[in-house]
Amino acid sequence: MTGYVQDVAALARKDFLLELRTRETVPAMLLFVVSALVVFHFALPATAGESERVAKGLLWVAVLFTALLGLTRAFVAEREQGIFDGLVLAPCDRSAIWLAKALSVAAFLVLAELVAVPAFALFFTGVDAVTIAALALANLGIAAVGCLLSAIAAASRTRELLLPLLFLPLAIPIIVGGVGASVADDPGRYLAFLGLYDGIFAIISWASFEYVVTE
Amino acid sequence: MIRARSLTKRFGEHDVLDRIDVDVPAGGFLLVTGRNGSGKSTLLRLLAGLSAPTGGELELGVERAAIGFVGHEPLVYRELTALENLELYGRLYRVPERRERIGMLLERFGLWEARHQRVATYSQGMRQRLALSRALLHDPELLLLDEPFAGLDREGADLLDEELSELARSRTLVVSSHQPERVAALATVRLELT
Q1: CA-to-CA distance for B21 and B5, rounded, in angstroms?
Q2: ipTM of the complex
Q3: pTM
Q4: Does B92 sit within 8 Å of A7, measured CB to CB?
Q5: Which of A96, A161, B35, B156 is most buried, by the most CB atoms less than 10 A from its CB?
Q6: Does A215 reach chain B within 8 Å, measured CB to CB?
Q7: pLDDT tens across B115-126, in order?
């Protein structure tokens, strides 16, 4: 177990180091999420912010598409530089590759949300603790399922098309749970739903990643 | 060490490898030759466990952790330094006395002075030498080299000649090459793919 944690830590550290060096993903996510909120602000009638459901729905749409942007970049280095082979050859459990990538994607998403939430409050309405909790749970689910699908898409020539087609349908429950938790009087069951989604997809992704990265 | 019987790999309707039989004893040196597209790289990928055969049997006398592989790509991150790349692989392979081993390999392949430079700044020859350092980091029992002379300058190729002579004394090697004359004298088993 200690070895597995060390593998995940080494791989995640590498992802953070690569992002610090290249600065290709997080700045793009930040710019995208702020731009999306600005577009929503000007595209929708001024009364949109008065409807909590409409406003919170916009936040979730912006977060989801920002996550998709990050996921598109998740395995770029491994794909373009053929490094999947090197990682797959290593004697570590191959699910460690997925878990490390999911952790880094989740961390990048948190950084984007640290900017998105205040921007959303500025343009629309404030965000309560329940919505923050829902975002945290959603980040885990997005990262878990998204990294598996990103690895699948990375093997395809049409990866930029394939990832949204695979990811968005599977992300619908996240939107249902997230928006529900943000606006419902009883958010507990929506948060539980998000937690269940995270658990189920984390197990599926963890167990199936090995088959995704080998021919 | 390696025993293949009727080893076959098919992509769609195309047989890339068609019923290959080969035996390589421990400590042997298999030289794989053949024209472009004859399946040399596919065979090495099968041996590395990076690809599964479509048919036949393949037995390797070693575990995944004891295989070193050099393919067409150096399998290192361009935006990391040589030291950072080898540190990463050293951790994943649980290399004992990792730092000393990395330092020794970087010295041996003439990369010590450039160890803090990003791989993106390396020449093709330096990348190939780094790929060899990576493949040897965990002291593998079976070393698979796919066109190891590709991209090497004269100095690098001469260095590799010396290394292969040294490595052939201590482990099993499988080398595919367009320049078989460079290593023909070392080969104990030859396989020509058509």
Answers
A1: 5
A2: 0.88
A3: 0.90
A4: yes
A5: A96
A6: yes
A7: 999 999 999 889
